[in-house]
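User: Predict the structure for this protein chain, please.
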Amino acid sequence: MRGEGRRIPPHGQGSASTVKIGFVTQWYPPETGTAVPRAIAQGLGILGHEVHVLTGIPNYPAGRVYEGYRVRPYSSELDGDVTVHRAPLYPDHSRSSARRMVNYLSFAVGASAVSLTTRFPTPEVWLTYSSPATAALPAMLPRRRQRPHAMIIQDLWPDSVLGSAMATGFVTRALGRPLAALSHATYRSADSIGVISPGMRDVLVGRGIQPDRILDTPNWVADQHTPSDDRQDLRHRLQLRDESKVFLYAGNFGEMQSLTTLIQAFDEASHADLVLIGDGMMRAEVERVAATRPNVHVLPPVPADDVPTLQAAADVLVVSLQDTPLMRVTMPSKLQSSMAAGKPILVQGAGDVAAVVERARCGAAGPPGSTELRRAVQGLASAEASALGEMARRARDWYEAHYSAASGAARVENLLIHAIEEHTR
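Assistant: Here is the predicted structure, written as structure tokens:
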């Protein structure tokens, strides 16, 4: 890979080992499901860079402002050695296309305004965590375009919007072309683009992005797992059967997770209990479908720091996605955290994420609503402890080889090197 093993070269007032990075991400802790942007920021900080995160007021995934925060023009805090700058936004994560668009656009405008103040230091290189595509606006402002700009694409736009609950007929007709134009403009603005899955690279090349501008930057998560064989706390709390295997999903209850079809896949699994922990716009529907199934348990969300303990108490960890063209090229960070936990993995989904689990031989996979998925559930539920132990070992080995924090941070640093080199040509 180009630039492998090199440190970021001097740019402006920076040094060969320290560069001031403006990292734009709409979502950041304490919000649920934000382990990846935090890992990126912390990883670059560990490498010696000065990282300034430009983010919004925490409100994801329920669309409600977190306790201790309020919407105001500017606030800041420290996350270890990383400075977090918070911009105002309209809090929302509903199924309303209009309100969600206002949420995205309000962050783009608020973050751009903050980036132009003296409170936010002028970065030597921009790094945008995209999605949403609108998050790239601060780095695209004329005053800022003289700086190198790297992007890490988490969700392809406009695909992720047009394939979601937001995609009413009106949205598709009125916003399809403008969103496509906006998305392509953000890709063109970037000097380098990081992708989190092989399929995503193929899509971008097919849309005219030069292959040499695209680098592989698979997500990683901080290794917070504490190995434990104590499964009794979770079992006692839920009054689960001793002989049952516990399958755990902890995360967002959104449309893209297709949790209702996941629940249905456990109808014939007599030795499996599915535990769902989290929140989101589909929670009420998930609770309704789970209510008639005694082996499905829906619990409230927990702090991110509690998730590793719950993972350690489970027998199998679950990654769940719809089967759509977009989801087939998506690589959710839940895969990395599950591998880091050293547990067998059930994937409801298809495409890149299922392929990784199959290549690593650390679990089983099947598309939503399929016979393959039901067989995968039943196979893991009936597997011997020794077989599950082998899957767990292979999951952890794959994490160490491909998704560790050290390798992940080095890849992102290399993406920034590439952006600086391309920008100065």
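Confidence is low (pLDDT under 50) at residues 1-6, 10-16.
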